[in-house]
Amino acid sequence: MENKQNEKEKIVRNYLKGGKLTVIPSQLKKKLYILEYLAEGLSAEVKYHEKEINEYIKKYHEDFATIRREFIVQGIMTRENNIYQLNSRDKWRRIS
After folding, report:
1. What residue stretches are annotated with the DUF2087 domain (predicted)?
2. Which residues, including other chains, have CB under 8 Å from residue 29's CB and lie 6 or more apart?
């Protein structure tokens, strides 16, 4: 578990410079670590409008649409009628 945490921290440091995501990783494992990191700033109790999610993601990267879509594809969030909500962690795609 500690090795996984260290690996996540290293990947986050490599991809976030000055608080900004330099590039969206193409390798799934790295992408999942980054998405997990970004999702940690969201609350499971809050239902977000699409515009709110976009603004949150824009703090990290300009391509908010891709990251928002990845949140859905990887099971991190659900979307219904342009309302987004964080899923419980057991529904998130696992890092192997």
Report:
1. 20-85
2. 95, 96
User: Averaged over 66-72, what is the pLDDT?
Assistant: 97
Query: Using an 8 Å Cβ cutoff, are 71 and 77 in contact?
Result: yes
For the whole model, what pTM was predicted? 0.91
Q: Is 18 a residue whose pLDDT tops 80?
A: yes
Task: Assess if CATH 1.10.10 describes domain 2-91.
Answer: yes
**Identity of residue 9:** E
Block residue for tokens 């500690």: 2
Mean pLDDT, residues 22-46 taken together = 96
Q: Decide the pairing of beta strands 83-86 and 77-80.
A: antiparallel
* Element spanning 75, H or E: none
